Structure formats: structure tokens, C-alpha cells
Amino acid sequence: MTLTCVDCRASYPATLLYACEACGGLLEVTRPGTEPPGLDALVSPAVTLGECGTPLLPVRPGSLPTPARALWFKDETRNPSGSFKDRLVSAALTTALTFGSKGLVCASSGNAGASAAAYAARAGIPAVILVPERTPTEKMAQIAAYGALLVKVAGHYSNSYAMALAVARETGFVNVTTTFLNPYGTDALRLVGHEIYDQLGGQVPDWVFVPTGSGPLVKGVFQGFADRGGRMPRLVAVQAEGCAPIVKAFEERAGEVQAWGEPKTIASGISDPLIGYARDGTYTLRLVRESGGCAIAVSDDEIRRAMRVLAAGNGIFAEPTGASSLAAAQKMLARGDIGPDERIVCMVTGHGFKDFGIYRQMPVHEIRVEADASASVIIQALEGMGPPERVV
Ligand SMILES: [Zn+2]
């Protein structure tokens, strides 16, 4: 196993190295001679809580405002800490322990931090988790519950990112920040592509929608399908209108992604302005273009509607970021960019338990009754709800 720069192709022995020493580029894990490369180690990491192997659920017919006949949800909420980040963290930490790491550091918008704290607890090592101070309270409570040191950093995510670099440098702890920083973590995401491929019986989807901050999950899906050979799905990097650096570069046909200003969106998991590491976004944009896909931004209202379709229409409870993929797929279906017969997979990246605040503001069917109320009151309310076919 070696580390290779995705830009200048310089190669390094496998150590705790986070960037190319020659050009500062992103590093990826290469395992020459095995095919598919190194999957055994990824499937059975030493530090595990039972991550991966999440279900691929077909959409309930009739639940989509703009219909699609072949749409699936890759339900990553089912990972141990409630998001796809568990795939990354289990692999990154397993590798770091073999290098002698005594603790971990993670900058996070919440989900990676919760995951890192959980796996640190599992490994019995200390964890320092840095999050923006405006992170949803549920995510912060989860991080603290796992016993980590929770550091609330003023301002947006990129501030936490910079501080994590400093803490990792000073302590020697492994940095499992889930941008492209830790090549072992990013590498583990290729299993997502493999799982989708297998779950669809080898039939490659036409489109895969991926909620995207810096973009390691885009790479994971890309790499997984590339491992299997044959046709590639078109990858769609989904961002929020209030934080869309990759979409902006895609629409302007720019070669490089520029950092965003102040993010403003309910989708905390993809609220990443890429300040100081816009290069990550440029790499993700390159993969999106290579796949023939695109980058698209969705509004907070579109995300809220998708959350309702997922929860009330399909029984899947997702946080705003997790529903952004469906919001984008609906947008492209409605515009006719995608035909109703094309095969679509939406990555649902994080659990609804992680951000109750948004659901609390949504209309619900709810009544209060006295303890001695007649059942007819409830039946009346039930009849007032209308048919369940279009609950959303
Ligand atoms: Zn390089």
C-alpha cells in the first residue's frame, strides 16, 4: 500500500501523511497488484461498530411529486452513529492505530465528529472534536455523549478545520477530518460504489446523487464503480444554494473551485465553504465532469420538501443534508434533465435524529385529547388527513 498524489502522481510510503510534500495535492491510497484493490481490509476493519452494508431501498411508487420509475435510496442513516461517516472513520482509525496513534482529532460539521467520537470510545483512545458553534444541538449532544472533548469553534466550518490541523500537529493524534485530508478514510468510501453495484445486481445506475461538502463521497462512489469496470454512473454533486462553491465553478465552466463566503443553509452537513482547501472541491469537480455528471444547488425549501417525501412518503428519517440528494433529483426530473425511466440512486447520508429543529418547524398531523376523550375524536382527525397515497 502506498500514497499517491492525485495531481503530480508523486508516491509515498503509507504513513500518517495528509498532503503531497511536492505540490500540496490530495493523496489517495494505491494498492498495486490486487483486484479489486484491498477490499478485504476495508470490509473487516479492526475498529468496528458494524458499519457498511446499508440497505438500498426503492422509492414507494406515488410518493414523488415528479415521478421516477427506478429510483433508490442508499440509506446511510443506518450506520452505527447515523451517517456514512462511520465508513471513513472506522478505516482511518484502524490504519492510524497500526501507525501508533494514541488519540484522534476531527473537525466536523457534526456527523464526522459524532462518528469519530464513537469509534474513539470503541478503541479506548481520547478524541478532540472541533465543530462550528452553530452546529445542531443534537449533533453536539451525540459527540459529548461518546465522551469526547467537544470544542465549539467560533464561525464557520473552515475555522474548525484549520484548528484541527494545529491540534493534530501538536498532539501527534491522527486527524480523521473527513474532507480529503485522511486518504485511508476516503479510500474506504469506495465500498459504497461496490455495495450499490451488487445491490442492483450489476446494473449500473444512470445517475447517483451525492450530498457534497468537499466531496470524498463523490470519489468513493466514482472509485467503487471504477473498480468494477464497465459503464460509470453520472455523478451529481449536490450542494445547498447558500453554500455552493463546486456548483458555482461547474456552472461557470471554471477549471478551479473558489472558496465560498459565509454559508447560509439548513443543510449543516454540506455547509462547507472550503476556505483553505478549495483544492478538494476542484478535485471533486474533476471527478463529476469525468463521470459525465453535473453539480446542482437546491434551496432550503426544496430540501424541506424532500425531507417530507422521505419521511412521510417513504419511512426514511433524514437530516436536511441527507434529503438534499432527493431534492436535486426531483429538480432535474421536473426540468426534464432526467427521463422518468432512468435509473437513479440518491445517497441519504445522515439520520433525522441529528437535527430535530427542522422537523419541529414542519406541519404535522397532531391533536391533543383528554384522558377520557372518545375514540371518535381521533377517528375524525384521521379522516381529515385524506388518503395516505400523497401524504406529503
Ligand atoms: Zn503532488
Written overview of the protein:
The protein has helices spanning 39-43, 85-98, 111-123, 137-145, 157-171, 183-188, 190-199, 216-228, 245-251, 278-290, 300-314, 320-335, 356-360, 375-384; strands at 2-5, 11-13, 27-30, 56-58, 70-75, 104-107, 127-132, 149-153, 174-175, 207-211, 234-240, 294-298, 343-348. With 392 residues, it is α/β, with parallel strands linked by helices. Among the domains are: 1-33; 50-83 and 185-359, Rossmann fold. Helix 4 links the parallel strand 7 and strand 8. Bound molecules: zinc ion. Zinc ion (ZN) binds next to loops.
Offer a quick outline of the entry.
The protein is of the alpha/beta class. Helix content is 39%, strand content 15%.
Structural class: alpha/beta
Average residue-wise pLDDT: 94
CATH topology of one domain: Rossmann fold
Supply Rg.
21 Å
Q: What helical percentage do the residues reach?
A: 25-40%
Quickly count the helices: 14
How far is the first residue's CA from the last residue's CA?
Answer: 49 Å
**What is the CATH first-level class name of one domain?**
Alpha Beta
Please state the overall shape, judged from the principal axes of the Cα atoms: globular
Strands, count: 13
Hetero compounds: zinc ion
